[in-house]
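INPUT
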Amino acid sequence: MKPLRIEKMSIRFGAVTILPEVSFEVAPGECFGLVGESGSGKSTVLRCASMLLGTWSGDAKVGDRSVREMDLMERCRTLQMVFQDPYGSLHPRHSVRTTLSEPLKIHRLGDTEERLAQAMRDVGLPVEFLDRYPHQLSGGQRQRVAIARALILEPEVLLLDEPTSALDVSVQAEILNLLVRLREEKGFTCVMVSHDLAVIDHMCDRFAVMKAGDIVEVLPREAILDGSARHPYAQELIAASLAYEGAA
Amino acid sequence: MTSDPILDVQGLSLRYPGAAEPAVRGVSFTLGRERLGIVGESGSGKSTVGRAIMKLLPDAEMSAERMRFEGVDLLRASEAQMLKLRGARMSMILQDPKYSLNPIRRCGDQVAEAYRTHVRCSKRAAHDKAVAMLAAVQIRDPERVYGLYPHEVSGGMGQRIMIAMMLLTDPDLVIADEPTSALDVTVRLQVLKILDDLVKERGIGLIMISHDLNLVRNFCDRVLIMYAGRVVETLDARDLDRATHPYTRGLLAAQPRIGGPRAPLPVLQRDPSWTMEAPA
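OUTPUT
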Protein backbone atom coordinates (compact mmCIF):
# COMPACT_ATOMS: atom_id res chain seq x y z
CA MET A 1 0.00 0.00 0.00
CA LYS A 2 1.29 3.43 -0.89
CA PRO A 3 0.34 6.92 0.19
CA LEU A 4 -0.98 9.51 -2.27
CA ARG A 5 0.25 13.07 -1.99
CA ILE A 6 -1.22 15.96 -3.91
CA GLU A 7 1.14 18.93 -3.85
CA LYS A 8 0.10 22.41 -4.93
CA MET A 9 -2.13 21.12 -7.71
CA SER A 10 -3.36 24.02 -9.80
CA ILE A 11 -5.21 24.24 -13.11
CA ARG A 12 -6.77 26.94 -15.25
CA PHE A 13 -9.01 26.73 -18.27
CA GLY A 14 -8.33 29.94 -20.15
CA ALA A 15 -9.03 32.84 -17.86
CA VAL A 16 -10.86 30.71 -15.32
CA THR A 17 -8.89 29.22 -12.46
CA ILE A 18 -10.51 25.94 -11.49
CA LEU A 19 -8.08 24.90 -8.79
CA PRO A 20 -5.97 27.73 -7.33
CA GLU A 21 -3.76 25.44 -5.27
CA VAL A 22 -4.79 22.16 -3.73
CA SER A 23 -2.65 20.01 -1.44
CA PHE A 24 -3.58 17.01 0.65
CA GLU A 25 -2.21 13.68 1.68
CA VAL A 26 -3.85 10.27 1.85
CA ALA A 27 -2.27 7.62 4.09
CA PRO A 28 -1.54 4.14 2.70
CA GLY A 29 -4.76 2.14 2.60
CA GLU A 30 -6.88 5.07 3.71
CA CYS A 31 -10.15 6.06 2.10
CA PHE A 32 -10.18 9.85 1.83
CA GLY A 33 -13.31 11.82 0.97
CA LEU A 34 -13.75 14.97 -1.09
CA VAL A 35 -17.01 16.85 -0.61
CA GLY A 36 -18.31 20.18 -1.82
CA GLU A 37 -20.92 21.72 -4.06
CA SER A 38 -21.02 21.12 -7.80
CA GLY A 39 -18.37 23.13 -9.57
CA SER A 40 -16.08 23.19 -6.54
CA GLY A 41 -13.42 21.18 -8.38
CA LYS A 42 -13.74 17.79 -6.65
CA SER A 43 -13.78 15.78 -9.85
CA THR A 44 -11.10 17.97 -11.41
CA VAL A 45 -8.70 16.92 -8.64
CA LEU A 46 -9.22 13.27 -9.62
CA ARG A 47 -8.93 13.97 -13.32
CA CYS A 48 -5.64 15.81 -12.77
CA ALA A 49 -4.22 13.17 -10.44
CA SER A 50 -4.97 10.46 -12.99
CA MET A 51 -3.52 12.61 -15.81
CA LEU A 52 -6.80 12.62 -17.72
CA LEU A 53 -6.09 16.33 -17.65
CA GLY A 54 -2.44 17.12 -18.31
CA THR A 55 -2.23 20.90 -18.27
CA TRP A 56 -1.91 21.40 -14.56
CA SER A 57 0.98 22.43 -12.38
CA GLY A 58 2.11 21.01 -9.09
CA ASP A 59 2.57 17.35 -8.42
CA ALA A 60 0.77 14.16 -7.44
CA LYS A 61 2.87 11.38 -5.96
CA VAL A 62 2.05 7.77 -5.31
CA GLY A 63 4.67 6.69 -2.78
CA ASP A 64 7.76 8.58 -3.95
CA ARG A 65 6.94 8.50 -7.59
CA SER A 66 5.28 11.40 -9.37
CA VAL A 67 2.46 10.57 -11.79
CA ARG A 68 4.25 12.81 -14.29
CA GLU A 69 7.29 10.53 -14.35
CA MET A 70 5.23 7.45 -15.04
CA ASP A 71 4.60 6.33 -18.59
CA LEU A 72 1.05 5.45 -19.57
CA MET A 73 1.48 1.74 -18.79
CA GLU A 74 2.86 2.32 -15.33
CA ARG A 75 0.28 4.98 -14.59
CA CYS A 76 -2.58 2.68 -15.48
CA ARG A 77 -1.23 0.01 -13.19
CA THR A 78 -0.85 2.52 -10.36
CA LEU A 79 -4.00 4.62 -10.58
CA GLN A 80 -7.46 3.63 -11.72
CA MET A 81 -10.72 5.47 -11.66
CA VAL A 82 -14.41 4.59 -11.35
CA PHE A 83 -16.77 7.15 -12.84
CA GLN A 84 -20.15 8.40 -11.79
CA ASP A 85 -22.29 7.18 -14.59
CA PRO A 86 -22.14 3.46 -15.30
CA TYR A 87 -24.17 4.08 -18.46
CA GLY A 88 -21.54 6.34 -19.92
CA SER A 89 -18.34 4.71 -18.76
CA LEU A 90 -18.61 1.31 -20.43
CA HIS A 91 -18.31 0.84 -24.17
CA PRO A 92 -21.83 -0.04 -25.34
CA ARG A 93 -20.65 -2.40 -28.08
CA HIS A 94 -18.04 -4.26 -26.07
CA SER A 95 -19.03 -7.28 -24.04
CA VAL A 96 -17.95 -7.42 -20.42
CA ARG A 97 -15.29 -9.92 -21.49
CA THR A 98 -13.82 -7.48 -24.01
CA THR A 99 -13.95 -4.59 -21.53
CA LEU A 100 -12.14 -6.58 -18.87
CA SER A 101 -9.66 -8.43 -21.08
CA GLU A 102 -8.44 -5.33 -22.92
CA PRO A 103 -6.25 -4.12 -20.03
CA LEU A 104 -4.88 -7.65 -19.55
CA LYS A 105 -3.92 -7.80 -23.21
CA ILE A 106 -2.32 -4.34 -23.20
CA HIS A 107 -0.32 -5.12 -20.09
CA ARG A 108 0.53 -8.63 -21.30
CA LEU A 109 -0.75 -10.35 -18.22
CA GLY A 110 -1.20 -14.10 -18.51
CA ASP A 111 -3.97 -16.42 -17.21
CA THR A 112 -6.58 -14.20 -18.85
CA GLU A 113 -9.45 -16.63 -18.22
CA GLU A 114 -8.56 -17.13 -14.57
CA ARG A 115 -8.16 -13.38 -13.97
CA LEU A 116 -11.46 -12.58 -15.68
CA ALA A 117 -13.30 -15.14 -13.60
CA GLN A 118 -11.64 -13.88 -10.42
CA ALA A 119 -12.50 -10.25 -11.27
CA MET A 120 -16.16 -11.22 -11.71
CA ARG A 121 -16.22 -13.16 -8.45
CA ASP A 122 -14.56 -10.24 -6.64
CA VAL A 123 -17.37 -7.90 -7.58
CA GLY A 124 -20.07 -10.48 -6.95
CA LEU A 125 -21.21 -11.10 -10.52
CA PRO A 126 -21.79 -14.54 -12.05
CA VAL A 127 -18.96 -15.55 -14.39
CA GLU A 128 -21.50 -16.14 -17.20
CA PHE A 129 -22.09 -12.38 -17.30
CA LEU A 130 -18.74 -12.04 -19.11
CA ASP A 131 -20.61 -12.53 -22.36
CA ARG A 132 -23.20 -9.86 -21.73
CA TYR A 133 -23.22 -6.36 -23.12
CA PRO A 134 -23.74 -3.25 -20.96
CA HIS A 135 -27.36 -2.84 -22.08
CA GLN A 136 -28.10 -6.32 -20.72
CA LEU A 137 -27.03 -5.26 -17.21
CA SER A 138 -28.75 -3.15 -14.57
CA GLY A 139 -27.17 0.08 -13.33
CA GLY A 140 -25.73 -1.62 -10.26
CA GLN A 141 -24.32 -4.50 -12.28
CA ARG A 142 -22.73 -2.04 -14.69
CA GLN A 143 -21.08 -0.20 -11.83
CA ARG A 144 -19.75 -3.56 -10.61
CA VAL A 145 -18.23 -4.15 -14.05
CA ALA A 146 -16.68 -0.66 -13.92
CA ILE A 147 -15.16 -1.50 -10.53
CA ALA A 148 -13.91 -4.85 -11.82
CA ARG A 149 -12.34 -3.08 -14.80
CA ALA A 150 -10.58 -0.60 -12.52
CA LEU A 151 -9.27 -3.29 -10.17
CA ILE A 152 -8.20 -5.92 -12.70
CA LEU A 153 -4.75 -4.29 -12.99
CA GLU A 154 -4.43 -4.30 -9.19
CA PRO A 155 -3.77 -0.56 -8.85
CA GLU A 156 -2.24 1.05 -5.75
CA VAL A 157 -4.71 3.92 -5.82
CA LEU A 158 -8.38 3.84 -6.72
CA LEU A 159 -10.12 7.13 -7.52
CA LEU A 160 -13.90 7.05 -7.12
CA ASP A 161 -15.86 9.89 -8.71
CA GLU A 162 -19.38 9.78 -7.22
CA PRO A 163 -19.56 6.02 -7.74
CA THR A 164 -23.09 5.65 -6.38
CA SER A 165 -24.90 8.89 -7.08
CA ALA A 166 -26.59 7.55 -10.21
CA LEU A 167 -27.90 4.51 -8.33
CA ASP A 168 -30.92 3.78 -6.14
CA VAL A 169 -30.34 3.53 -2.38
CA SER A 170 -30.83 -0.22 -2.39
CA VAL A 171 -28.21 -0.63 -5.13
CA GLN A 172 -25.98 2.01 -3.56
CA ALA A 173 -25.87 -0.14 -0.40
CA GLU A 174 -24.62 -3.11 -2.44
CA ILE A 175 -21.89 -1.07 -4.14
CA LEU A 176 -20.73 0.56 -0.90
CA ASN A 177 -20.54 -2.85 0.80
CA LEU A 178 -18.59 -4.14 -2.18
CA LEU A 179 -16.09 -1.25 -2.02
CA VAL A 180 -15.59 -1.71 1.73
CA ARG A 181 -14.97 -5.43 1.28
CA LEU A 182 -12.61 -5.02 -1.67
CA ARG A 183 -10.61 -2.40 0.18
CA GLU A 184 -10.18 -4.77 3.10
CA GLU A 185 -9.20 -7.65 0.84
CA LYS A 186 -6.92 -5.84 -1.58
CA GLY A 187 -5.76 -2.90 0.48
CA PHE A 188 -5.69 -0.07 -2.05
CA THR A 189 -5.52 3.62 -1.20
CA CYS A 190 -8.72 5.36 -2.14
CA VAL A 191 -10.03 8.86 -2.82
CA MET A 192 -13.79 9.19 -3.01
CA VAL A 193 -15.66 12.19 -4.35
CA SER A 194 -19.25 12.50 -3.19
CA HIS A 195 -21.81 15.16 -2.45
CA ASP A 196 -23.48 12.92 0.11
CA LEU A 197 -22.00 13.25 3.59
CA ALA A 198 -23.75 10.09 4.76
CA VAL A 199 -21.86 8.10 2.11
CA ILE A 200 -18.58 9.80 3.04
CA ASP A 201 -19.23 9.10 6.71
CA HIS A 202 -19.84 5.47 5.90
CA MET A 203 -16.70 5.03 3.81
CA CYS A 204 -14.01 7.51 4.85
CA ASP A 205 -12.07 8.33 8.01
CA ARG A 206 -11.10 11.80 6.88
CA PHE A 207 -12.51 14.13 4.27
CA ALA A 208 -11.74 17.50 2.72
CA VAL A 209 -14.42 20.13 2.18
CA MET A 210 -13.95 22.00 -1.09
CA LYS A 211 -15.36 25.33 -2.17
CA ALA A 212 -14.51 27.22 -5.36
CA GLY A 213 -11.45 25.07 -6.00
CA ASP A 214 -9.97 25.40 -2.54
CA ILE A 215 -9.86 22.90 0.25
CA VAL A 216 -11.32 24.95 3.06
CA GLU A 217 -10.92 22.32 5.74
CA VAL A 218 -9.80 18.72 6.23
CA LEU A 219 -11.90 17.03 8.88
CA PRO A 220 -12.01 13.66 10.58
CA ARG A 221 -15.20 11.68 10.22
CA GLU A 222 -16.20 12.47 13.83
CA ALA A 223 -16.37 16.20 13.04
CA ILE A 224 -19.70 15.70 11.25
CA LEU A 225 -21.45 15.01 14.52
CA ASP A 226 -19.31 16.73 17.16
CA GLY A 227 -19.45 20.15 15.49
CA SER A 228 -15.69 20.76 15.45
CA ALA A 229 -15.64 22.17 11.90
CA ARG A 230 -14.22 25.70 11.92
CA HIS A 231 -14.77 27.03 8.44
CA PRO A 232 -18.21 28.61 7.91
CA TYR A 233 -18.81 26.74 4.64
CA ALA A 234 -17.90 23.38 6.21
CA GLN A 235 -20.30 24.15 9.04
CA GLU A 236 -23.03 25.10 6.59
CA LEU A 237 -22.56 21.92 4.57
CA ILE A 238 -22.63 19.71 7.64
CA ALA A 239 -25.65 21.50 9.10
CA ALA A 240 -27.55 21.18 5.81
CA SER A 241 -26.75 17.48 5.52
CA LEU A 242 -27.83 16.80 9.08
CA ALA A 243 -31.03 18.79 8.68
CA TYR A 244 -31.75 16.92 5.49
CA GLU A 245 -31.30 13.58 7.17
CA GLY A 246 -33.59 14.71 9.94
CA ALA A 247 -30.90 13.64 12.40
CA ALA A 248 -30.19 17.06 13.88
CA MET B 1 -56.73 18.82 4.45
CA THR B 2 -60.29 19.24 3.29
CA SER B 3 -62.66 16.40 2.64
CA ASP B 4 -63.10 17.43 -0.97
CA PRO B 5 -60.29 15.82 -2.92
CA ILE B 6 -58.46 17.77 -5.62
CA LEU B 7 -57.47 14.63 -7.39
CA ASP B 8 -59.08 11.22 -7.26
CA VAL B 9 -57.37 8.35 -9.05
CA GLN B 10 -58.71 4.81 -8.91
CA GLY B 11 -57.19 1.78 -10.57
CA LEU B 12 -54.81 3.58 -12.88
CA SER B 13 -52.89 1.25 -15.18
CA LEU B 14 -50.62 2.19 -18.01
CA ARG B 15 -48.54 0.37 -20.56
CA TYR B 16 -45.98 1.90 -22.88
CA PRO B 17 -46.27 0.90 -26.53
CA GLY B 18 -44.29 -2.25 -27.22
CA ALA B 19 -43.63 -3.00 -23.57
CA ALA B 20 -44.46 -6.50 -22.36
CA GLU B 21 -45.35 -5.46 -18.83
CA PRO B 22 -47.45 -2.49 -17.75
CA ALA B 23 -45.40 0.29 -16.13
CA VAL B 24 -48.19 1.14 -13.70
CA ARG B 25 -50.73 -1.36 -12.38
CA GLY B 26 -53.84 -0.47 -10.48
CA VAL B 27 -52.66 2.63 -8.65
CA SER B 28 -55.32 4.36 -6.54
CA PHE B 29 -55.08 7.41 -4.35
CA THR B 30 -56.82 10.68 -3.58
CA LEU B 31 -55.16 13.99 -2.96
CA GLY B 32 -56.54 16.82 -0.88
CA ARG B 33 -54.83 20.07 -0.02
CA GLU B 34 -51.82 18.20 1.23
CA ARG B 35 -48.35 17.11 0.24
CA LEU B 36 -48.21 13.58 -1.06
CA GLY B 37 -44.89 11.85 -1.69
CA ILE B 38 -44.47 9.03 -4.20
CA VAL B 39 -41.25 7.10 -3.63
CA GLY B 40 -39.71 4.10 -5.25
CA GLU B 41 -36.65 2.99 -7.14
CA SER B 42 -35.97 3.88 -10.74
CA GLY B 43 -38.35 1.99 -12.96
CA SER B 44 -41.02 1.64 -10.28
CA GLY B 45 -43.43 3.79 -12.31
CA LYS B 46 -43.54 6.84 -10.05
CA SER B 47 -42.78 9.40 -12.77
CA THR B 48 -45.16 7.62 -15.12
CA VAL B 49 -47.99 8.18 -12.64
CA GLY B 50 -47.20 11.91 -12.61
CA ARG B 51 -47.15 12.10 -16.38
CA ALA B 52 -50.30 10.02 -16.75
CA ILE B 53 -52.20 12.48 -14.55
CA MET B 54 -51.11 15.32 -16.82
CA LYS B 55 -51.97 13.13 -19.84
CA LEU B 56 -48.53 13.67 -21.26
CA LEU B 57 -48.26 10.12 -22.58
CA PRO B 58 -50.58 10.01 -25.58
CA ASP B 59 -49.01 6.85 -27.06
CA ALA B 60 -49.34 4.75 -23.94
CA GLU B 61 -52.31 2.50 -23.26
CA MET B 62 -53.95 3.99 -20.23
CA SER B 63 -56.94 2.75 -18.30
CA ALA B 64 -58.49 3.67 -14.98
CA GLU B 65 -61.75 3.23 -13.17
CA ARG B 66 -61.73 6.87 -12.27
CA MET B 67 -59.42 9.81 -12.72
CA ARG B 68 -60.96 13.10 -11.70
CA PHE B 69 -59.38 16.45 -11.12
CA GLU B 70 -61.67 19.01 -9.48
CA GLY B 71 -64.74 17.84 -11.29
CA VAL B 72 -63.00 17.30 -14.62
CA ASP B 73 -62.94 13.73 -15.84
CA LEU B 74 -59.35 13.43 -17.02
CA LEU B 75 -60.07 10.15 -18.79
CA ARG B 76 -62.54 11.81 -21.14
CA ALA B 77 -60.95 15.25 -21.32
CA SER B 78 -59.99 16.30 -24.84
CA GLU B 79 -56.56 17.63 -25.68
CA ALA B 80 -58.07 21.13 -25.95
CA GLN B 81 -59.41 20.84 -22.43
CA MET B 82 -56.07 19.51 -21.21
CA LEU B 83 -54.24 22.46 -22.74
CA LYS B 84 -56.41 24.75 -20.65
CA LEU B 85 -55.73 22.73 -17.50
CA ARG B 86 -52.01 22.16 -17.90
CA GLY B 87 -49.97 25.05 -16.65
CA ALA B 88 -53.06 26.83 -15.37
CA ARG B 89 -54.71 24.55 -12.84
CA MET B 90 -52.22 21.69 -12.73
CA SER B 91 -48.53 22.08 -13.38
CA MET B 92 -45.35 20.07 -13.23
CA ILE B 93 -41.89 20.92 -11.96
CA LEU B 94 -39.21 18.86 -13.63
CA GLN B 95 -35.91 17.59 -12.39
CA ASP B 96 -33.25 19.57 -14.12
CA PRO B 97 -33.63 23.27 -14.99
CA LYS B 98 -30.71 22.93 -17.42
CA TYR B 99 -32.86 20.83 -19.71
CA SER B 100 -36.27 22.23 -18.90
CA LEU B 101 -35.69 25.90 -19.63
CA ASN B 102 -35.34 27.14 -23.18
CA PRO B 103 -31.63 27.94 -23.50
CA ILE B 104 -32.06 30.79 -26.00
CA ARG B 105 -34.76 32.79 -24.25
CA ARG B 106 -34.48 35.02 -21.23
CA CYS B 107 -35.62 33.35 -18.01
CA GLY B 108 -38.08 36.09 -17.15
CA ASP B 109 -39.74 36.01 -20.55
CA GLN B 110 -40.31 32.29 -20.14
CA VAL B 111 -41.98 32.89 -16.79
CA ALA B 112 -44.12 35.69 -18.23
CA GLU B 113 -45.08 33.51 -21.20
CA ALA B 114 -46.47 30.88 -18.85
CA TYR B 115 -48.78 33.55 -17.49
CA ARG B 116 -49.76 35.08 -20.84
CA THR B 117 -50.67 31.64 -22.18
CA HIS B 118 -53.47 31.36 -19.68
CA VAL B 119 -54.43 34.88 -18.70
CA ARG B 120 -55.31 37.70 -21.10
CA CYS B 121 -53.20 40.63 -20.09
CA SER B 122 -50.70 43.15 -21.42
CA LYS B 123 -47.02 42.31 -21.75
CA ARG B 124 -46.29 44.87 -19.10
CA ALA B 125 -48.67 43.26 -16.61
CA ALA B 126 -47.20 39.80 -17.29
CA HIS B 127 -43.73 41.20 -16.81
CA ASP B 128 -44.68 42.71 -13.47
CA LYS B 129 -46.38 39.52 -12.40
CA ALA B 130 -43.27 37.48 -13.33
CA VAL B 131 -40.95 39.82 -11.45
CA ALA B 132 -43.17 39.63 -8.37
CA MET B 133 -43.18 35.85 -8.59
CA LEU B 134 -39.40 35.72 -8.95
CA ALA B 135 -39.21 37.79 -5.79
CA ALA B 136 -41.61 35.36 -4.11
CA VAL B 137 -39.21 32.48 -4.76
CA GLN B 138 -36.61 34.59 -2.98
CA ILE B 139 -34.54 35.64 -5.92
CA ARG B 140 -32.73 38.80 -4.92
CA ASP B 141 -32.78 41.44 -7.60
CA PRO B 142 -35.55 39.82 -9.71
CA GLU B 143 -35.39 42.53 -12.40
CA ARG B 144 -31.81 41.56 -13.19
CA VAL B 145 -32.54 37.81 -13.15
CA TYR B 146 -35.52 38.41 -15.45
CA GLY B 147 -33.10 39.41 -18.19
CA LEU B 148 -30.64 36.53 -17.75
CA TYR B 149 -30.39 33.48 -19.98
CA PRO B 150 -30.62 30.00 -18.42
CA HIS B 151 -26.87 29.36 -18.76
CA GLU B 152 -26.20 32.47 -16.68
CA VAL B 153 -28.04 31.20 -13.60
CA SER B 154 -26.99 28.53 -11.12
CA GLY B 155 -28.84 25.24 -10.70
CA GLY B 156 -30.62 26.39 -7.54
CA MET B 157 -31.66 29.65 -9.15
CA GLY B 158 -32.83 27.80 -12.27
CA GLN B 159 -34.99 25.52 -10.19
CA ARG B 160 -36.49 28.50 -8.37
CA ILE B 161 -37.28 30.06 -11.76
CA MET B 162 -39.06 26.83 -12.71
CA ILE B 163 -41.03 26.93 -9.47
CA ALA B 164 -41.96 30.55 -10.14
CA MET B 165 -43.13 29.63 -13.63
CA MET B 166 -45.27 26.76 -12.38
CA LEU B 167 -46.86 28.60 -9.45
CA LEU B 168 -47.53 31.88 -11.25
CA THR B 169 -50.97 30.87 -12.48
CA ASP B 170 -52.06 29.74 -8.99
CA PRO B 171 -52.59 26.08 -9.85
CA ASP B 172 -54.45 23.76 -7.49
CA LEU B 173 -52.23 20.80 -8.21
CA VAL B 174 -48.46 20.79 -8.59
CA ILE B 175 -46.58 17.64 -9.51
CA ALA B 176 -42.89 17.95 -8.65
CA ASP B 177 -40.87 15.21 -10.34
CA GLU B 178 -37.54 14.91 -8.50
CA PRO B 179 -37.44 18.70 -8.11
CA THR B 180 -34.15 18.86 -6.25
CA SER B 181 -32.09 15.81 -7.13
CA ALA B 182 -29.87 17.88 -9.45
CA LEU B 183 -29.06 20.33 -6.65
CA ASP B 184 -26.42 20.44 -3.93
CA VAL B 185 -27.53 19.63 -0.45
CA THR B 186 -27.04 23.20 0.83
CA VAL B 187 -29.20 24.62 -1.96
CA ARG B 188 -31.67 21.74 -1.91
CA LEU B 189 -33.04 22.67 1.50
CA GLN B 190 -33.58 26.30 0.53
CA VAL B 191 -35.41 25.36 -2.65
CA LEU B 192 -37.59 22.83 -0.85
CA LYS B 193 -38.40 25.37 1.85
CA ILE B 194 -39.49 27.92 -0.75
CA LEU B 195 -41.66 25.35 -2.53
CA ASP B 196 -43.06 24.18 0.77
CA ASP B 197 -43.96 27.69 1.97
CA LEU B 198 -45.68 28.58 -1.29
CA VAL B 199 -47.61 25.33 -1.37
CA LYS B 200 -48.84 25.85 2.20
CA GLU B 201 -49.61 29.52 1.75
CA ARG B 202 -51.67 28.97 -1.39
CA GLY B 203 -53.28 25.70 -0.35
CA ILE B 204 -51.93 23.79 -3.32
CA GLY B 205 -52.11 20.01 -3.53
CA LEU B 206 -48.57 18.79 -4.09
CA ILE B 207 -47.38 15.46 -5.42
CA MET B 208 -43.67 15.06 -4.77
CA ILE B 209 -42.10 12.29 -6.82
CA SER B 210 -38.74 11.25 -5.46
CA HIS B 211 -36.41 8.35 -4.85
CA ASP B 212 -35.20 10.04 -1.68
CA LEU B 213 -36.79 8.84 1.55
CA ASN B 214 -35.28 11.66 3.60
CA LEU B 215 -36.87 14.22 1.33
CA VAL B 216 -40.39 12.83 1.55
CA ARG B 217 -40.02 12.28 5.28
CA ASN B 218 -39.28 15.98 5.77
CA PHE B 219 -41.49 17.58 3.17
CA CYS B 220 -44.61 15.46 2.76
CA ASP B 221 -47.66 14.62 4.81
CA ARG B 222 -48.36 11.26 3.28
CA VAL B 223 -46.23 8.83 1.31
CA LEU B 224 -47.06 6.19 -1.30
CA ILE B 225 -44.36 3.60 -1.78
CA MET B 226 -44.27 2.09 -5.25
CA TYR B 227 -42.64 -1.11 -6.39
CA ALA B 228 -42.85 -2.50 -9.92
CA GLY B 229 -45.80 -0.29 -10.87
CA ARG B 230 -47.86 -0.95 -7.75
CA VAL B 231 -48.44 0.96 -4.56
CA VAL B 232 -47.19 -1.44 -1.90
CA GLU B 233 -47.76 0.78 1.11
CA THR B 234 -49.33 4.12 2.06
CA LEU B 235 -48.13 5.84 5.21
CA ASP B 236 -48.14 9.11 7.05
CA ALA B 237 -44.68 10.58 6.49
CA ARG B 238 -43.99 10.78 10.20
CA ASP B 239 -44.69 7.05 10.54
CA LEU B 240 -42.19 6.15 7.84
CA ASP B 241 -39.91 4.49 10.38
CA ARG B 242 -42.79 2.26 11.39
CA ALA B 243 -43.37 0.99 7.87
CA THR B 244 -44.48 -2.62 7.77
CA HIS B 245 -43.90 -3.63 4.17
CA PRO B 246 -40.56 -5.42 3.77
CA TYR B 247 -39.74 -3.34 0.69
CA THR B 248 -40.13 -0.03 2.53
CA ARG B 249 -38.18 -1.38 5.48
CA GLY B 250 -35.46 -2.61 3.14
CA LEU B 251 -35.17 0.78 1.46
CA LEU B 252 -34.92 2.54 4.81
CA ALA B 253 -32.27 0.15 6.10
CA ALA B 254 -30.15 0.37 2.94
CA GLN B 255 -29.58 4.09 3.43
CA PRO B 256 -26.25 4.96 5.07
CA ARG B 257 -26.69 7.36 7.98
CA ILE B 258 -24.36 9.95 9.40
CA GLY B 259 -22.88 8.50 12.59
CA GLY B 260 -24.12 5.06 11.58
CA PRO B 261 -22.37 1.90 12.78
CA ARG B 262 -20.50 1.31 9.52
CA ALA B 263 -21.52 -2.30 9.53
CA PRO B 264 -22.23 -3.63 6.06
CA LEU B 265 -25.47 -2.04 4.90
CA PRO B 266 -28.43 -4.40 4.79
CA VAL B 267 -29.12 -5.21 1.18
CA LEU B 268 -32.66 -5.37 -0.11
CA GLN B 269 -33.84 -8.93 -0.70
CA ARG B 270 -36.50 -8.73 -3.37
CA ASP B 271 -39.45 -11.01 -2.99
CA PRO B 272 -41.35 -11.91 -6.17
CA SER B 273 -44.62 -11.89 -4.21
CA TRP B 274 -44.38 -8.08 -3.87
CA THR B 275 -45.47 -7.70 -7.46
CA MET B 276 -48.59 -9.83 -6.89
CA GLU B 277 -49.93 -8.27 -3.72
CA ALA B 278 -53.10 -6.28 -3.86
CA PRO B 279 -52.41 -2.65 -2.99
CA ALA B 280 -53.03 -2.07 0.69
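end of record. Chain B touches chain A through 30 residues (CB under 8 Å).
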